[in-house]
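User: Show me an example of a complex going from sequences to structure tokens.

Assistant: Sure. Here are the input components:
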Amino acid sequence: MSVAAPALPIPAIRIRPRMRSTELLLLALVSVALVAGASSLGATQRLLAARTAGETLASLDLSPPDPRGLAVYLTALFMVHLAFVLAGRRTDQVLLPTLAMLGGIGLLLMQRLPQDLVVQRWGDVALGLGQLQLGWLLIALLVIAALALAVRSDAWLRLYKYTWAAAGIALLLLTFVFGSEVNGARLTLSIGPLSGQPSELLKVILVVFLAGYLSENRTLLAEESTRIGPLRLPPIPYLAPMVAMWAIALGIVVVQRDLGAALLFFAVFLVLLYVATGRPAYVAGGLLLFVAGSWVLYNLFAHVQLRVDNWLDPWADPLGAGFQAIQALYAFGRGGLLGVGLGAGLPTIGGRLPVPAVHTDYPLAALGEELGLIGLLAILGLYLVLVIRGLRIAAAAQDDFRAILAAGLSLVVGVQAFIIAAGNLKLIPLTGITLPLISYGGSSLLANALVVGLLLALSDRGAEPPPPPRAPRRGLGRLRRGAA
Amino acid sequence: MTSSGPGRRPIGTTILRTGVALACAFAVLAGGAGWWQVVEAQRLATSPDNPVVIAAARRTLRGPIVDRDGRWLARSSRDANGEALREYRDPVVSHVVGYASRQFGTAGLERTYNPELLGLAGADPMGGLLDKFDPSPREPLGLRLTLDLRLQRAAVQALGRDRGAVVMLDPATGEILALASTPTYDASAIADPATAAATFERLRDDDAKPLLPRATLGRYVPGSVFKIVTLMAGLGGDAISPATTFPEQPDAEQDGLVVDGFPIRDGHHPQTGDRALDLVEATEVSCNLWFALAGLATGGERLVGEAEELGFGAAIPFDLPTAASRVNDGSGDAPGGFSGEVELASAAFGQGGTFVTPLQMALVAATVANDGVLMKPHLVSEVTGEGTGAGPVGPETWRRVLAADDAAVIQAAMREAVEGDLGRLFTSGAKGTGVPTAGKSGTAELGGSGEPHSWFIGYAGGQTPRIAIAVLVEQGGRGGERAAPLAGDLMARYFELYGRP
């Protein structure tokens, strides 16, 4: 199988500007909101510092804590916007501002947390949490711009689905073998100075593969040709991927101890199966497999048991396993309806943060405390906007592949946000995945940038029409005829 | 949309449905956030191990706690380092007031009212709205109790070296005047960081369990004091009346009462001869067989139902944690959760699988005294100070448990049990007051050779009784000999302090 995709068709650049007034207006709103947030953060931080030192402030100083960082971020946003205008493509105008707001909230949070939470050194240069997050955000914006501007054909995604699947499995195996353990989970792959969490990239590859597989076999999967007692199943060979997917998810839990990724992959798989076939029976069957798998895992593996028990009653071990979950709930409680204000929350215990993983697993707890229920609902609303825009792109797509791809890309973000938010809010056991676009982390930001960039590209109504459908492979074709 | 094959659902429909499903999932998230940030916000934000509360506790001078006449019970000062130090006046109130310790957390009212005493109360979501614009910290609030330190001291002294409990309350208001448990402990030594660890360890390992608030969390076999509950159930269900006699009762005193093939035996009451006793006489001599028959006539379901009206079966809503009293362990198949008629008959005279707290039995006496109306017991009469959460706490009716005329029948019986010609022979010690007194003593047999628990419940005062009491002395012997005179002395002390009716 040839791995090399056909060269990205980059047409000759013709500057044909097209105004994007909705995007411009929304970006302006986002800028105002972020500047206001940063000002309030700066003022609060100075006020608290003065109170600790026993001084009183002469006047209210509203300058942001890192005005240059914020300026760079906002400038980058408008430059991406300008590039979109110049390119003249008719792509979605809501996705970029939504991402900008979520990313901006994440940036403010990272600037607000203790900067030594994460430090990267290159020789004499040491970058703290806020600066690193800014750097990743800029790279993410670059990725989005590149995808949204350059991708005009989906053939390179569509034609090589098994190559993508192979690449994904290879990535998974690499992590199994060479991954390093952090906090008891083997999720991090390091190559030289670079390290990342492959599961973030895997989720995009998974969606691409599923879009290819499901769009090709949609009709067959929706048929009922195998009957086992009262069960009406599609042809057995088409069930294999479902079982394989389930096995891979189990493998991720067992080998990588990554419950979050396993849950995300399996959920997205089931949802896309439903999108493609319209058969709720698949979802029901998948849920049965999920329940069975969960039960087995719970009984066999201590780390699964710990997560579940800790969810059911964190107060059983309030200073040990349950500490972080309880402290997160306290943070939500302190926040109340309106929040304590940016910079005024997260009281330290003996100089340490009460929620150590606040920048990765628990940003929602910090935001819930400082922005209150109102802020939390706004953030959840932003994710919903992102998903709904994505689903609109899917519904308007020209063929099944693009529809399933766009739906999958938007759902993978929505489901991930749901899983981690529900974990933070103690609605389900906590699984360590990131809050898309807000949590600290390069892998996470880049993977979600891929998602948004691809969605933007897919939203272009002027893009190339999809290639004609290929003839079904012979073996499956016979099967299909037999079933008909 | 691309062309669809025949019978194929258009993909747009499934995408729409998926979107709706995800929106619903996000609505659940919003609900979860609302739950923690609005409904549970106050409890979380003021939980004792919340870092904000811990930080506040080190700095803040907790509000004072005083008794009903303003005598201080707990107060705060600053030590040499400027950190808050809590001081308690008298060990006799330790089980009520509790302690606030940096190492061992809080107990008693110090725990229940921790947010108020620290000035964190009113952190409700709506109050928080205004609070954002007023960053000054709230003033710690204080507590004024319904407790009378003088009565409390008298109760602890009367119990002496015995383990036991005394509950005294105003039946008309539910105000608790004394809530004593012995042995008690020195709360100041737990609050002082220098002595806390050693004190706490010693108290925890003490076999007498001085940290256990027996009045509210101790559960005991009630013996004959439970017969008042049986009377309530029987009268309320019209299974018995003041004139009820059981012809088989005199013979059974000789041969035992055969229930389900199992003989229940009781001593003969020589004072009454071979008469079949009526309700008042049976109460006066505390005739187990009469009550066994009354319980069987009433039925298990009715008996347990009546007890639950009185507060059995669940923790009593109160300013302090309470243990749930129970008539039986609920495991049986017979009505009411009894294992059968034998257990029902035994429970009816207080020797079944019944366990009660002294507070619960005090409420039984108070309900009779208050003509059948059960008032909610409370210990705090006012949250003092200025700000959200401060204000008086008034009496609150819990519910009417039995009709006034049924209550009058029991009042007469309990009166005779203390003052009647027969009752006097057993329980005269309770009449120490010179005012009309009613009550019922109990001797809770524990099996084995140990001394029984000594019980008394009752009340005193003229037409409207002003003080109800429950006394329990662990292994104190017969109720009439230990608990009843003790109750009589304490009620006499009450009338000495508050004047006779």
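The lines above are the inputs; the final block is the predicted structure for all two components together. The longest helix of chain B spans residues 11-39.
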